[in-house]
Design a protein that fits this description.
Structural class: alpha+beta
Strand order of the largest sheet: 4-3-2-1-5
Radius of gyration: 11 Å
Shape: globular
Largest sheet: 5 strands, antiparallel
Oligomer: single chain
Helix content: 10-25%
Number of domains: 1
CATH class: Mainly Beta
CATH architecture: Roll
Strand content: over 45%
CATH topology: SH3 type barrels
Distance between the termini: 22 Å
Length: 70
């Protein structure tokens, strides 16, 4: 999987609801539920309760985050 395919997949789902699960250090897991807001060349953002959160495509490719469409 390359970054262009991931970007295309996310761009097709702009304004759709998602859950982004972030696997951090020391087994810390956080979940963010919102809508895909904008896409940029290296990152995408979701809007969660009026706050914009950004994530990188590389984090998705390497497994640091998982995206589930609702």
């Amino acid at each position: 999987m390359n970054i262009d395919l991931v970007r295309e997949k996310i761009e097709k789902n702009i304004n759709k609801k998602v859950v982004v699960t972030v696997y951090g250090m020391r087994n810390k897991i956080t979940r963010h539920e919102g809508i895909i807001y904008k896409t940029y060349p290296n990152i995408f953002t979701i809007m969660e309760n009026g706050v914009e959160k950004s994530f990188s495509y590389n984090d998705y490719i390497t497994g640091y985050i998982k995206i589930r469409m609702l």
